[in-house]
Design a protein that fits this description.
heterodimer, A: 146 residues, mainly alpha, Globin-like, 8 helices, B: 291 residues, Porin, two-stranded antiparallel ribbon, globular, binds protoporphyrin IX containing FE
Amino acid sequence: MPCKKTALNFVLAALISLILVGCAGGRADDSLYQRLGGEQGVDRLVGELLDEVHADRRIAFLFEGTDRDNLHAVIVEQICAETGGPCTYRGLDMRAAHSGLDIRHDEFDAFVEDLIVAMERVGVPTPAQNRLLAIFAPMREKVVFQ
Amino acid sequence: MTLVSAGPHRTVAALALLAFSGLAQAAGTGQLGTGGVSTFEGSGGGGIVPWATLSGYATREEIDATAFYTRSELDDYRLDVYGASVNLYNRLELSIARQELDLVTLGPALGLPGASLEQDVLGAKVRIAGDVVYSRMPQVSVGVQHKRNRDFLIPRLVGAPDDDGTDVYLSAAKLFLAGLGGDNVFANATLRSTKANETGLLGFGGPGGDSRRLRVEGAVGLFLHRTFVIGAEYRSKSGNLPGLPEDDWFDIFVAWVPNRHVSLTAAYVDFGEIATLASQNGWYLSLELRP
Ligand code: HEM
């Protein structure tokens, strides 16, 4: 039946274009940084994130011995650098930053939830939220079980 | 560092959250998302295609359970399915489903009013590599679906030699965060080895003997909103019964996931010819519940 062929072609075309789109995830501009509200926006976002994390019983204990001001500054710098902002990340690499914490997958998930709550709270539009998550999601393997 | 964290660990997987990326409300006010829904064969996936994702929201540290009920109303048939699955540590999924295909038109025509085709499906699926959200490679899983007819009368009459059979499949799935503009997109491809006729409802094999063959299946989804995904699925089919050609299946679905405890999927299905009755189209509704 021709209609079935069309359906198959549609699905195949969709699959292929998805893979192409997915692979073309380069970011040559600072549009995401701007979407996050630039320097001020990222600063507010990280403030909300750390508030959220410290109030989250599932993971707050992991941050107990941490210098919050320093962590705040380093994460701001990292987000700025990763989203095309005018910064260079000078903090620890992800494995070193989390070594000894032995963060589990469910704890990682809790952190991501808190990040999403923080992004909602400061009004980051959903497409920008997704783009930021797309940048940080692949880092999970360097963060967990270190 | 201690592994004991405060509070009950009822975390949903970030898969869940990211899949519906947008809002995850603070714990206690409910969180959104899904790891796919339950197929009519009980395995986690879409409606008609098992995906590489495992049902529910268990992470590596957790167990999750899902119960579902599905009804599909076609021109000349009505399909009812209920079942359940458990996801163990985001590694192993075990599922069970009971299917009943009511022969609304054929039954009376054959002098068997109220006749139906029934089978049970026991499934197991193992995630062998990757993570649908977090790894650069797709999540890859292998699964089996062992199917057994509950009443073999009609399948035997139409020439099926076996009342049970086992499908084996390999699936790969990936969520592309911000994959289309800023929206999240999902894609899955599945390769299935099967000897089933009409997915097993008409028995297994044919007069020509056991004829296992490879079938291709696929699914795509687009997250329109944090609680809504629309998508399409395709499943190639072919049977072994003389005079009973099968058509490929196709569906277009929308899934609504208001929270991690409930999902509701509605679909338009095009199943083509089934047991001599042409162009079987209709709707499909599925409800999932989780503790
Ligand atoms: C992709 C996700 C993550 C990113 C990008 C990230 C980023 C960072 C950065 C930039 C630092 C500071 C490094 C430095 O001091 O130079 C840091 C430290 C830290 N992170 Fe993460 N992090 C992530 C996930 C997590 C998760 C899931 C947890 C816990 C649930 C966590 C807990 C911590 C803690 C406790 C520290 C401070 C360690 C110390 O005091 O030395 N992080 N992280």
